[in-house]
Design brief:
The chain has helices spanning 19-22, 27-41, 53-62, 82-91, 129-142; strands spanning 2-7, 44-49, 69-73, 95-99, 121-124. By secondary structure, the protein is of the alpha/beta class. The chain has a 5-stranded parallel beta sheet, with helices on both faces. It binds ligand CA2. The site of ligand CA2 has 17 residues, from loops.
Length: 143
């Protein structure tokens, strides 16, 4: 099974600031966790991070016919992006949305997810472990 993990703006800054909200783990720790999960679960996991909405849309479009599942943390675009929502709907690849923090316990604007409307499942507030849970969810339901 081939899974594409997509991270949106500022996720590459993890661990550098705001450890109270996002934890002390770095983006490099996240990449290591994904590599470990791929090995342990016998999966192919590719990761992509961008700070640009159009680049995220391009990557989702390119996944068509190449990946069996998408794990996506669209970061701030979660709460604004109809373009990413439409791209996820267009490719129809099962997608799981991940949020490191518990967005439901934060500002009201973070409690709205456009992108989640195209996802089969959402995991919030489990830190980096949420990415592993999302991968396992896709393996269990679509692998
Ligand atoms: O909890 C999440 O995973 C978020 O998707 C993270 C986004 C935020 O905009 C969403 O509302 C929830 C932020 C990405 C990381 O931003 C940083 C900000 C400062 C320092 C390090 C990372």
């Amino acid at each position: 099974m081939k899974i594409l993990v997509i991270n949106g703006p500022n996720i590459n800054m993890l661990g550098i600031r705001e450890p109270g909200i996002y934890g002390k783990n770095t983006f490099a720790d996240l990449l290591a966790l994904l590599e470990r999960t791929a090995m342990e679960e016998n999966l192919t996991i590719e990761q992509f991070q961008s700070n640009h909405e159009g680049a995220l849309v391009d990557k989702i479009q390119e996944a068509l016919g190449r990946f069996d599942g998408i794990v996506i943390n669209p970061a701030a675009y979660t709460h604004t992006s109809v373009a990413i929502l439409d791209a996820l709907k267009a490719v129809s690849i099962p997608a799981v949305e991940v949020h490191i923090s518990d967005v439901d316990a934060r500002e009201p604007f973070r409690q709205i997810s456009y992108t989640g409307l195209a996802c089969v499942h959402t995991i919030k507030g489990h830190g980096l472990d949420g990415y592993r849970e999302a991968v396992l969810y896709l393996k269990e339901h679509f692998g």
